[in-house]
Amino acid sequence: MKKPQKKTLHTHKTALSLLLIPAFTPGFTQAADTQPKDESTLLVTAKPTTVSELDTPAAVSVVYGDDLRQAAPRINLSENLGSVPGLQIQNRQNYAQDLQLSVRGFGSRSTYGVRGVRMYVDGIPATMPDGQGQTSNIDLNSVDSVEVLRGPFSALYGNSSGGVVNVKTETGRQPPTVEASSYYGSFGSWRNSVKATGSTGDGTQAGDVDYAISASRFTTHGYRDHSSAQKNLGNAKLGVRLNDVSKLTLLFNSVDIDANDPGGLTEQEWRDNPTQAPRADQYNTRKTTKQTQGGLRYDRQLSEHDDLSVMMYAGVRETTQYQSIPVSAQKNANHPGGVIQLARHYQGIDTRWTHNGELGSVPVSFTTGLDYETMTEKRKGYENFVTVNGATVLGEQGNLRRNERNLMWNLDPYLQTTWQLTDKLSLDAGMRFSSVYFDSNDYYIVGTNGDDSGSASYHKWLPAASLKYAVTDGWNIYTSAGRGFETPTINELSYRDNGAAGLNFALQPSTSTTVEVGSKNRVGNGLFTAALFQTDTDNEIVVDQSSGGRTTYKNAGETRRRGLELSLDQQFAADWRLKMAWTYLEATYRTNVCGANDCRGNRMPGIARNMGYASFGYAPEDGWYAGADVHYMSDIQANDQNSAKAPTWTTVGLNTGYKLHVRQNWLLDIWGRVDNLFDRDYVGSVIVNEGNGRYFEPAPGRNYGVGVNVSYSFQ
Predict the structure, then answer these.
(1) Would the pLDDT of 192 be above 90?
(2) Among residues 179, 200, 213, 177, which one has the least CA distance to residue 713?
(3) What global pTM score does this model have?
């Protein structure tokens, strides 16, 4: 095996698919660019055109898989994304509820899963048609890159407001390689994984095949009481070159999670004993999730100027969740119970055509397509207790209390164009018409619990535009504007406040308008970016009440977000690297959402006003490497009244390891890390507007991890 070449900083030039393909990412192939270039710049060629993080007229960040995996557990997406400004991603220490992820404050209301942000994995939406997504099926062991788009251009992805997170997994290439890795950390955490990648050719000839297969198993006792979990994950990608102008790619992903749910704590409970989970033990709160999906992508070059891509996918996701809802509340005849059982079948197809040409003497490219997604959900509710010999036993599935079928689908045509007006001035403009439909059939009609069937539809034009000016070859400035659209998810529609029966059809979609100005400047062997933005939202969807693991929602009238995002990714003397990011975000209510207690001007809960990150490391291709990182987050309001908040915190982490090449075929990487070095007590995330004041989900103190990765390349 040849010794790997010295890596250069990826942030100079990078394949960026987000703005070109408004609905999914095609299978880009890496190749040397034909244009002259600086030796320190990595260029990636992709059809229909080549773009870069520097040249893209939007707030976008790219984090590569090697950086995500460097001395990391490879368990959660939150591990190494701190360098992305505007992205607030927090580990709840609760594998039943997924990560808490928000972009520019959108998604902060989520008590589980991801809202307000569209997510894709290899072109398959990890966000359902209603706008609810999850990160649990992302296999960090095989990630090639994570692209995060913030701001106005995220409108071109339809049902989202804050941004887009686009994950691409590795494409197999020569030589064939097999890898095994293992991690052990605090709280009895284990992760074991295997991966195989390779190809039968260089990907340019008919019959060439590339493959990447990965599988992992993770188990943990958990930091808190009643927080143990286990997770099995598999991911596969198989590409077949049909001929010199077309390629077919098969995608497969499966995840199986069984996790206990420790729930939230009051401030006093957190300060007394952050590891406790009193109600979780009482009700045996837990959640199981099984998801399997497959996709088929067809890419074809129609002519020298035209490309066609078709993406088809289908999957099933089954979830059972036990909640800590008091028996007295469940005995209400209209209450849907304390056990949720869901079976979701989803599928979709996205077809797009890209043309590159000229209009007069102006180079023009456009992408147009049609995106169709649908999801069918069977939702049942049961009591979270049974009666045995006259005694109430909690944490057991009891009588049926809810039975309905929900259907949601969207049909979105879209168009995006790029105009190179002069050598220095370019215009990007696009439009999407988003239509989302919801239909529910209620099959549980018992006594006073009537027929709660109903339907709703939402429609919105979503324009976006950006103007970029190249001051120099390494400095661009831009301004952009766009409209976002976010519908209620099925879960947000599923419950009304005060335990009332029926669907919450009073909940309306929110609409946001964003204006942004930004600058991107190449500084030596690095990139400095700055973005200043304002987002005004009407009918913002916010938490109304949250209690016992169940949350209801309402519209908040008008809100405003103003912010500044700064980032620097700098490489020194080949092997030294500095990353820094700062986010200032002022998110406030402009209308009263608190009833008699007027809260106009209050900060929106769940959103940090300031976030900071810095990492510095020495990372040669062989031998010892080491790094340090600092995370800072200012206080986070926990409710609309701003009467409770999670305090400000700062943590420090250290890592070190050793890479050894043996006999040109073997690579051994042994590493260790410590997080929260100074053992700070802090709240990792908050449950917004929790009705009993149990807002806080504690983060662990000082914790450790060690790992080993072994790979073998066939020459």
Answers:
(1) yes
(2) 177
(3) 0.90
